[in-house]
Design goal:
about 475 residues, alpha/beta, TIM Barrel, uronate isomerase, domain 2, chain A, globular
Length: about 475
């Protein structure tokens, strides 16, 4: 069987002249450090710095991109080792889980998962034969052997992967002890937290009152009123800044920022503390809290990231059985122009606010997001996210948004992943897509080659560094 090798021109344009230019642009950015400012790698994993689990629990079970594709073709969650909330048995033999994955490798043809996984398997682990039922065990053994070596521990891989800076995503109530431990060992300039208050601002979540109690414990402020709730959030933000945080992150179905009167906010919080907030009240409160978070960002300087337009846990039966993050989050249409107007009327020109907008709704790229970023100094566009971090969708984003917003109202690529080993693969693909887009502009005499090189470097490195500056905490 032919040795598994990755083509050096993968994802580059096919036209000869444009491809040659793209190669030169890619060569100039390929070795730039990775700045990973939005992802879901656990701080505990980095702090522990222990050996990773077996190949199946590393690359299959926690990856909802992988799981959802296999489930869509009739592979049961149980066969993939996805745990059940009730503790009922699922497949626990990692080699069997891996065999199921490898025998279905063909399902990933044409998907970004294929691109990322190929990069990980070939470039990182040195797997020599393409995955299949016949090669599953050999690939498993090759990966397992490397995972047992010190060179494949998390902190060593930060260097190997060229990750200069990585931001974790942490609940507002997180005690940040793992970040403190990392900082004490000299990693505070490279591993920083991100403040995510979703569990607290969505007051209709089943765990909300438990999270509010923990917020009070962590902040030292008992939450009995709307004023104490806001004060507790402000205290936690200050703790995150002290720990090196540079950003907040907000996952909302809509981008609504309609303000509430203080009495309305007080009424909803009181109802929530009694466990009686209605869905309408919860939606109104979460929108109002986005406005409050923007105000707080103007005061403390944390970059505000907003991810809108995903309906979480689409299948309630699967959620009840398996919990979150098993692939049943589905995009919905998003609206930003009217939804963000209250926030931008107040803070869109504030010198300390940076609001980074993400979407999984391509329809709003040219109609809403690019025009907003192209006029409000506070607004920046985040990279195509989740279902849109594909080669074609990233190309469409560049074509749809750059005309109005330009390149410098963007923030560079974010990998948005729990799959630590895929981070360099995802950034590599983004740099290839940008090299192709810029090469076409050069070939059409819309950019000079030296300008294209400058833009490529900005998109890969300079813009994320500029967008997310240190604020005087542990990473300053």
């Amino acid at each position: 069987m032919r040795r598994w090798e990755l083509h050096p021109d993968r994802a580059l344009p096919v036209e000869g002249q444009v491809r040659d230019i793209a190669r030169a642009i890619l060569d100039a950015t390929a070795a730039l450090p990775i700045v990973s400012m939005h992802g879901h790698v656990e701080a505990e994993m980095l702090d522990r710095d222990g050996a990773f689990d077996d190949p199946a629990r590393l690359l299959v079970v926690p990856d909802h991109y992988v799981v959802r594709m296999l489930v869509s073709q009739g592979v049961p969650h149980d066969s993939l080792g996805v745990p059940r909330r009730d503790g009922r048995p699922v497949q626990t033999d990692p080699r069997e889980i891996w065999r199921t994955f490898a025998s279905n490798w063909h399902l990933f043809r044409g998907t970004p998962s294929r691109f990322w996984l190929e990069h990980v398997l070939v470039e990182v682990f040195g797997v020599e034969e393409r995955l299949s039922a016949e090669t599953a065990d050999a690939a498993y053994d090759a990966i397992a052997a490397r995972l047992a070596t010190p060179e494949y521990r998390p902190l060593a891989l930060l260097d190997r992967f060229g990750i200069e800076l990585i931001a974790t995503t942490d609940s507002a109530e997180a005690d940040l002890r793992h970040h403190a431990s990392l900082a004490a060992r000299g990693w505070g300039e490279r591993v920083v937290p991100t403040f995510r208050p979703d569990g607290l601002v969505h007051v209709d979540r089943p765990t909300w009152r438990d999270e509010v109690a923990l917020l009070g414990e962590r902040s030292g402020i008992e939450v009995t009123s709307y004023a104490s709730f806001v004060a507790a959030l402000e205290q936690r933000r200050a703790a995150f800044v002290a720990a090196g945080a540079r950003a907040t992150d907000h996952g909302h179905v809509t981008a609504d920022t309609t303000p509430l009167e203080p009495a309305q906010a007080e009424e909803i919080l009181a109802a929530a503390l009694r466990g009686r907030a209605t869905p309408a009240q919860a939606a109104a409160f979460s929108g109002h809290m986005l406005l409050e978070m923007a105000r707080m960002s103007c005061e403390d300087g944390l970059v505000m990231q907003l991810h809108s337009g995903v309906l979480r846990d689409h299948d309630p039966a699967v959620h009840a059985a398996r919990g979150n993050d098993v692939g049943y989050d589905i995009p919905v249409a998003a609206e930003y122009t009217r939804a963000l107007r209250p926030l931008l009327e107040r803070y869109g020109h504030h010198p300390r606010l940076t609001l980074v907008l993400f979407t999984v709704d391509e329809d709003v790229y040219s109609r809403e997001l690019a025009p907003l970023a192209g006029v409000y100094p506070a607004v920046r566009l985040g990279a195509p996210w989740w279902f849109l971090d594909t080669p074609e969708a990233m190309r469409r984003f560049r074509e749809a948004a750059t005309d109005t917003a330009g390149f410098y109202n963007m923030t560079g690529f974010v990998d948005d992943t729990r799959a630590f080993f895929s981070i360099p693969a995802r950034h590599n693909l983004a740099r290839r897509i940008d090299a192709g887009h810029l090469a076409r502009l050069v070939a059409e005499h819309r950019l000079d080659l030296d300008e294209a090189h400058e833009v490529a470097r900005a998109l890969a490195y300079d813009l994320p560094r500029r967008t997310y500056p240190p604020l005087g905490g542990a990473s300053a």
